[in-house]
Specification:
By secondary structure, the protein is α/β, with parallel strands linked by helices. It folds into two domains: about 140 residues, Rossmann fold; about 110 residues, Rossmann fold (3-Layer(aba) Sandwich). The chain is about 40% helix and about 20% strand. The protein is built from eleven helices and ten strands. The strands form two sheets. The protein has a six-stranded parallel β-sheet with strand order 4-3-1-2-9-10. A four-stranded parallel β-sheet has the order 6-5-7-8. Helix 9 links the parallel strand 7 and strand 8. Helix 1 packs across helix 10 and helix 2 packs across helix 3. It is globular, with a radius of gyration of 18 Å. The chain binds D-glutamic acid. The site of D-glutamic acid (DGL) has 17 residues, from helix 3.
Length: about 260
């Protein structure tokens, strides 16, 4: 029997768990390693060259230690700058997470779309190019948030941020110039962790686009369908060495005793 597929899922923190749960659902037979560079969180604060060097250094060690068949960069802030270097340096398929501007603009009826991401993601040339290539006649509003990813981490840690603070972060997404925004791209993997609150606090109903199901479909395209009869495993490791046990238990993931290392 062929060895089970091994998938590495990487983020700066816990946001990548929103991608993990979709990937695990479509490939329940795979052995999944969730690696979080929480000592480097938030990636939003890192200059581009430092971020690329840090992620490449971590992948040197992660690939040597785990020999994955495929890696998912479950972080828009990293994917929009580090993917070309990772693909050039390492001989395995990388699935990135980048703002879902194309499907959002295809789906918008009012032709008013907002992209809610970290400040770094919305400033990236990669994101601007997606808008040039795919927005067509849509008006796209870029909304960079400094605080929402840390708020999502706090929510998971059991210390939720106030409604007023979350409302302030999302307010610029809601444009009404005679036509109202009807679609908001969640361009940070942390944000779907707050989806219930984002929905409740929206001034009017919108379609929030979470890219995780599309990422899981891409993993399936590359690795193929699940192997019958094999039950996969899920482990998580953190660059701080501190695994949030209660959160991982909610996602059905075992903490791994070793820490993620290799950050430059
Ligand atoms: N989950 C990340 C993203 O998708 C990250 C936030 C950060 O580290 O600033 O962009």
């Amino acid at each position: 029997m062929a060895a089970p597929s091994k998938i590495l899922i990487f983020d700066s923190g816990l946001g990548g768990l929103t991608v993990y749960r979709e990937v695990a659902a479509v490939r329940p037979d795979a052995d999944i390693v969730y690696a979080a560079d929480d000592a480097g969180f938030p990636y939003n604060a890192l200059p581009e060259t430092a971020l690329v060097a840090r992620v490449v250094g971590l992948f040197d060690d992660l690939i040597a230690a785990h020999r994955p068949d495929l890696a998912v960069i479950a972080c828009n802030t990293a994917s929009t700058i580090a993917l070309p270097t990772l693909r050039e340096k390492f001989a395995l398929p990388f699935v990135g997470t980048v703002p879902a501007i194309k499907p959002a603009c295809a789906a918008s009826v009012t032709r008013r779309v907002s992209v809610l991401g970290t400040e770094a993601t919305v400033a990236r040339e990669y994101t601007r190019a997606l808008i040039r290539d795919f927005a067509k006649d849509c008006q796209v509003t870029l909304v960079g948030s400094k605080n929402l990813a840390p708020y999502a981490e706090a929510e998971l840690a059991g210390a939720p941020t106030s409604d007023a603070q979350i409302r302030a972060e999302i307010a610029p997404c809601f444009v009404d110039d005679g036509k109202r925004t009807d679609t908001v791209v969640l361009a940070c993997t942390h944000y779907p962790l707050l989806l219930d609150r984002l929905t409740r606090l929206a001034p009017w109903p919108v379609n929030y686009i979470d890219p995780a199901p599309a990422i899981a479909r891409r993993v399936l395209d590359l690795l193929g369908p699940p192997a019958p009869l094999h039950r996969g495993s899920s482990h998580a490791m953190f660059s701080s060495g501190r695994a949030p046990h209660a959160v991982l238990a909610r996602f059905g993931i075992e903490p791994q005793p070793t820490a993620v290392s290799g950050a430059k």
